[in-house]
From TrEMBL:
It catalyses: UDP-N-acetyl-alpha-D-muramoyl-L-alanyl-D-glutamate + meso-2,6-diaminopimelate + ATP = UDP-N-acetyl-alpha-D-muramoyl-L-alanyl-gamma-D-glutamyl-meso-2,6-diaminopimelate + ADP + phosphate + H(+). The keyword ATP-binding applies. Meso-2,6-diaminopimelate binds at residues 383, 407-410, 457, 461. Catalyzes the addition of meso-diaminopimelic acid to the nucleotide precursor UDP-N-acetylmuramoyl-L-alanyl-D-glutamate (UMAG) in the biosynthesis of bacterial cell-wall peptidoglycan. Keywords: ATP-binding, Cell cycle, Cell division, Cell shape, Cell wall biogenesis/degradation, Cytoplasm, Ligase, Magnesium, Nucleotide-binding, Peptidoglycan synthesis. Its cofactor is Mg(2+). This is UDP-N-acetylmuramoyl-L-alanyl-D-glutamate--2,6-diaminopimelate ligase. Pathway: Cell wall biogenesis; peptidoglycan biosynthesis. It is found in: Cytoplasm. The lineage of its organism: Bacteria, Bacillati, Bacillota, Bacilli, Bacillales.
Length: 490
């Protein structure tokens, strides 16, 4: 594509003169630039991409998109906001891939990964070709691609959609983080369905207030249906048990479909009964009642199931297929994942990393725990500090034996993170063990018959980030080793 043809997608006041080279790729990382690339300079949180423009030209960049003038031997196009321009240009360069996909975006503080995996499974089992983008990985048909962020930057994202089109994917399900909505990573995505799970405290390091956080998530709904193809129906799937849904409902021109447990909704679950191996309930859809037997545990899992059922129904998947798929789901990796190595107590590994997530999981455990509840919990570094004391409080409210330990300290001092947690707790009911492996082993040493152990915060993660180092660490493997070692000694 010629540079001028590409730039026509920006607004007409963007000046363009001079050479009109062929653009063979778009890159925002100078290290990936090749001959013919358009290099987009992004002023990031860590470094300024403008500082790499010269090296991009040396690597063969044919043109540069920047926010300020740069003296270079190739055309430099100046825009006010390169992040925004990147989203528009990436969408155009890859021939507007989301116009040809049924795209479902899922936002909310907790439950995005769980709901998106459930929904992808429903589509897959209904013989649709699927794509998935989220925290754990990205999937294009049967190919798994590693991604760094829950929602990748717009360039990576449009490239993935393009691959999906090439692989004839019909339904793409993606997690849409509040960061992505705020920064503009999903600008240019044409969603058919937007799903809201819930809103509780997280990411205040970034958004500063709950109001700003709520507004960022709301962008998914206010933009829905404002894009390219007005003839395709758009749906907002909202959780009626979360008061924020009323605001999102007001902000969208799309059709609204609601789900809920405690408040009247289009799609509901009633008569929920739970034990340690599953959940039974009645699914109510348009006055019809369908008995559901889920292998997933907890009220929060029922919400995720309802959200995925609602999105699948408005996508035209028959109810009986949907029910069969959700009943088959054993679980999502690292979400209420039970570790059974032959011990006589329950071990749960869960990704709860917010106050609400932790409370939901602990309430669930409390419902079937017969004796002590051990909680092993830490908080991530370089993330919302204000959630640390709250998570510590919740751990001590529901746990009988609590061990505060490290999560991913990242650039922070691990002891300082634990001090932030301790500030929320006034009794002495907890132990502090900086080393996560030691914390897990200590709990296993003390556990006895019918106790329950929750290892929270890292779920599916197979690493621990300490400083700039990434170490192998998987709660599920570490706890299994500890259990097996203890069983040997009996
Ligand atoms: C705070 C934040 O959002 N940071 C994101 C941001 O990184 P950054 O601004 O630090 O980038 P940077 O290193 O300053 O680089 C600026 C520019 O210079 C370029 N560069 C850099 C070096 C070089 O040699 N040459 C070069 O051209 C880079 O490619 C980039 O274009 O842009 C990167 C590329 O898109 C992201 O991967 C990175 O996410 C980091 C890893 C992150 O941890 N983000 C978290 C806060 C996040 O976004 N989380 C959300 C929500 C998670 C959830 O709740 O599920 C998510 O969606 O992941
Ligand atoms: N609907 C829900 N409501 C409240 N808590 C939930 C819900 N679903 C899951 N959780 C809790 O939150 C944790 C994270 O779930 P999940 O990974 O699905 O959320 P997420 O929104 O994708 O999180 P992230 O922001 O990290 O991408 C789970 O391990 C569980 O403890
Ligand atoms: N998506 C969340 C995941 C947190 C997981 C936790 N283990 C941590 O590292 O803080 C975040 O990036 O804030
Ligand atoms: Mg997620």
């Amino acid at each position: 594509m010629k540079l001028q043809e590409l730039l026509e997608h920006l607004h007409p006041l963007v000046p363009f003169r001079g050479e009109n080279p062929e653009i063979t790729s778009i890159e925002n990382d100078s290290r990936k630039v090749q001959t013919g690339s358009l290099f987009i300079c992004i002023n990031g949180f860590t470094v300024d991409g403008h500082d790499f423009a010269e090296s991009a030209v040396q690597k063969g960049a044919a043109a540069i998109l920047a926010e300020r003038s740069l003296s270079l031997s190739v055309p430099v196009i100046i825009v006010k906001d390169t992040v925004r321009a990147m989203a528009v240009l990436a969408d155009a360069f890859y021939a507007h891939p989301t116009r040809n996909l049924r795209l479902i975006g899922i936002t909310g503080t907790n439950g995005k990964t769980s709901t998106s995996h459930l929904l992808e499974k429903i589509f897959f089992e209904a013989n649709k070709k699927t794509g998935l983008i989220g925290t754990m990985f990205t999937k294009v048909a049967d190919e798994i691609i590693e991604t760094k962020n829950t929602t990748p930057d717009s360039l990576t994202l449009q490239r993935i959609f393009h691959q999906m089109i090439q692989r004839e994917v019909q339904f793409a399900v993606m997690e849409v983080s509040s960061h992505a909505l705020d920064i503009g990573r999903v600008h240019g995505c044409d969603y058919d369905i937007a799903v809201f799970t819930n809103l509780t405290q997280d990411h205040l390091d970034y958004h500063k207030t709950m109001e700003e956080y709520m507004k960022a998530k709301g962008l998914l709904f206010s933009r829905l249906g404002n894009t390219f193809n007005p003839t395709r129906p758009r749906f907002a799937v909202l959780n009626n048990d979360d008061p924020v849904s009323i605001l999102y409902q007001k902000s969208t021109v799309a059709h609204v479909v609601t789900y809920g447990i405690d408040h009247e909704a289009d799609i509901m679950a009633r008569n929920i009964e739970m034990n340690s191996s599953g959940t039974a309930c009645d699914l109510v859809v348009q006055g019809n009642i369908y008995p559901l037997k889920l292998r997933l545990i907890g009220k929060f899992s029922v919400y995720n199931v309802l959200a995925s059922i609602a999105a699948a129904l408005v996508s035209g998947i028959p109810i009986n297929n949907i029910i069969q798929s959700v009943e088959n789901v054993i679980g999502v990796a690292g979400r209420f994942e039970l570790v059974d190595a032959g011990q006589n107590y329950t071990v749960v590994v869960d990704y709860a990393h917010t106050p609400d997530g932790l409370e939901n999981v602990l309430k669930t455990i409390q419902q079937f725990a017969k004796k002590r509840i051990f909680v092993i919990i830490g908080c991530g570094g370089d993330r919302d500090r204000s959630k640390r004391p709250l998570m510590a409080q919740i751990a001590c409210k529901y746990g009988t034996d609590v061990i505060f330990t490290s999560d991913n300290p990242r650039s922070e001092d691990p002891s300082a993170i634990l001090k932030d947690m301790e500030a929320g707790v006034y009794d002495e009911k907890y132990l502090v063990k900086l080393d996560r492996k030691e914390a897990i082993w200590a709990a296993i040493e003390q556990a006895s018959c019918d106790d329950a152990i929750l290892i929270a915060g890292k779920g599916h993660e197979t690493y621990q980030i300490i400083g700039d180092d990434v170490f192998d660490f998987d709660d599920r493997i570490v706890v299994r080793e500890a259990i097996e070692e203890r069983l040997k000694c009996i």
